[in-house]
Amino acid sequence: MEDHVHHPSSNDVVVNVICDSAPDGRCLHPTLHPTNHAFSPQQQQQHQDGNERRDSLILAYKTLGVVFGGLVTSPLYVYPSMPLKSPTEDDYLGIYSIMFWTLTLIGVVKYANVAIRADDHGEGGTFALYSLLCRHVNIGILPSKHGYLNTTKDVQSNTLLARFFQTSVVARRLLLFVAMLGTCMLIGDGILTPAISVLSAMDGLRAPFPSVSKLLVEALSAVVLIVLFLLQKFGTSRVSFLFSPIMATWTLSTPLVGIYSIIHHYPSIFKALSPHYIFHFFWRNGKSGWLLLGGTVLCITGSEAMFADLGHFNQKSIQIAFLFTIYPSLVLTYAGQTAYLIKHPNDHDDGFYKFIPTSVYWPIFVIATSAAVVASQSLISATFSVIKQSVVLDYFPRVKVVHTSKDKEGEVYSPEVNYILMVLCVAVILIFGDGKDIGNAFGVVVSLVMLITTLLLTLVMIMIWRTPAVLVALYFVVFFVMEGVYVSAVFTKFAEGGWIPFAISFILAFIMFGWFYGRQRKTDFELTHKITFERLEELLAERCVQRVPGLCFFYTKIQDGLTPILGHYIKNMKSLHKVTVFTTLRYLLVPKVAPHERIVIKESNLRGVYCCVIQYGYADALNLEDHFVDQVISSLAQHIQKHQSPENLSSDFQEIEETLNLEEARHAGVVHVRGKTRFYIGLNCGWFDKIVLSFYEVMHSNCRSGLPALGIPPQQRIEVGMLYEA
């Protein structure tokens, strides 16, 4: 490991810690080979382009098992989720036309070509869009990167809309709430996808075995999910190599069955690609046709994953996989299902397994069940990742997060979240065993997440991309109207299962808001009652206060001053360690912070007192292991050396003395001190603060301590209690 010094400002020293391997991982670059001078530059460029294409194809294959599990398994439950009553040939043609154009417009145009370009340093998803807006336009509540680093600023000249958000606190909070809602809906997706996918796949047992009851299918589905959740603690690395082959087999086998069904049942099915079948469908069916949209919207289930999982792959690989495998597979599979149902109009309640030929029924059943498990695993893993990011950004109570793979940083597991998901998934199956009820709930999640993405993408187009107004209006009108109609249809099913994701999302949103509000109130109190370095100097000058041997990392949430817990600590302990490093963990609205920007040392005029800022993005692993102390000491030593005058001999002696003091303090013992604060909720508090802060205190008392979450050994931890007046 090699250390370098970089100067972001006149008062800051940023220490570059260059690791052996690049931590970025946002995309795969071709392996560099020694230059062969026998090749011309054109030949070398062709060789490099060939490597890039090969890497993109390999990544595209891997996306089948991670990104598209939910989307490509949707034929299992789309038709069974529709409340069809005596459907006719024209009805089925209209339904297929709606599904085709939904897949084309939302899947191909919106996600595969527009949303996928709105990444935040390679990360995707609704919160990444919010992060992108905050970083470029500075309209967020959390600190953005440019506020603390003197790097190239991303802030752009403001548009009229950007100035509106900057001046309106209500608008900024509403924007944050929308991003939170999208996050909560994704967690709800992690509950509903395993339930509906596994239940729909296992339902294939009932056709060949009529004696198998619906209750038995539900029980078997619950057992499969329980086993799946119990295996989460071992990680997916050992079995992930099976995911892509399973999903590739499913992706190729279902369209083959679809082609067989088209040839044997209704060869002219593709005439339904004409949009006029959609108009005729709504003209004939009216309100009942509008209500059927709650089922057809499920054909686009999982398309958000193309955008949300962007950080694990790259744009080209996801586009290749979707446009050349997933999209054609779904178009042909739904065409085959529809062709069968036109000739057998009353088989829609089992619209998938009925159209499977008897000769390949059991192989397809095995593939379908395996694909449903893989799709469930993809959403469970995504839920763990979202929870981890929320914890890092201080939007969610601290839970245990375990990295199950040494090679894949994004592969995480949370025991508490895992068991809560397991209970909710099993409860959804056992209580709402009817696929239509779960489908109604699923439709709410799918349509709302799509609508939130459309709104945030429109803001990105206006405030960041500066897209021409005509194109912005065209995009917004087409997709907002289309998705708005879907949302209005699924809301009519609120009492028939649609309330499930609302209940889950409301509880999660209340938890996130309560936690965030409590943390913000504590930060406001600390800023109001902060201790300045002048006040610290006065405290240390008192005769009763001793400087004891050792190295102390004193954690504080504020940079411009010191936490009031410090005064509380010194007044009661009557001591402070000889070397004290006031450490601030700064979470930035970027996915990952580069190693050379990770540790920032700030100046202090007091001997043995230093300030250190450790910066993390929401996709970084926040774990202060043993090498962290070595890095900080090395950074401090370089900071001391840099700020001594080379012409002053006494300055050289002071530098040597301070460096020796660092080493002596380190060998004397390292301790990490963090505040354990609580609110004192008095009679003068308003009703809102009493409710929200009391709820926050309940969560704070039952969540994990911040120090164990950092990976610090218990014997090195000290927590100082203090009451904050609300």
UniProtKB/TrEMBL annotation:
It is found in: Cell membrane; Membrane. Residues 60-536 form the K+ potassium transporter integral membrane domain. GO terms for molecular function: potassium ion transmembrane transporter activity. Residues 549-724 form the K+ potassium transporter C-terminal domain. Potassium transporter. Belongs to the HAK/KUP transporter (TC 2.A.72.3) family. This is Potassium transporter. It comes from Sphenostylis stenocarpa.
